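Attaching the record inline, Q. Sequence:
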Amino acid sequence: MLQIKQEGLAFELGDDWTQKRVSLLEQKEVIEQDILDQIARILKVPSDAIKNFDEEQAINIISNTFHDTNGLVNYNPTFNINPIDKWIEALEENKKLYERLLQAEQEKNQLLQRLLDGKS
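Structure, as predicted:
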C-alpha cells in the first residue's frame, strides 16, 4: 500500500537483510517485536497499525473514499496554496537574485578599476 519494494525495505533494515529475507518475513504469522518496531519506524507508521492491519477494512475505506461514476473517479483534493503567498515568495527570490547580481557587478567594477589604476 505504501509503494515500498522489498529491496528498499531490505536496504533500510541493514546489511543482514535481502529481498528474499523480507519476502520470507512477509509470509510469517508472527513477527518479533523488535523487527516489527524497526519496520514500523522505516514505514513511518505505528507498529500497532501493522499488527492490527485488516485488509478488508483497508479495502472498505478505499472503496468508500473513491466512488466510480461512469468511469470517472470522484476525487476532490483540497489544496491549501495561497497565490498571494507564492507571489510574495517569488518577489523575495527575485529581490535576492537582483541583490546578488548587483553585488557581482560591483565587484567586477572594483576589479576593473584596480586594473585601470595599476596601468596608469
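The chain has a mean pLDDT of 81. The helical segments are 6-13, 19-27, 33-43, 47-51, 55-65, 83-119.

More tomorrow.
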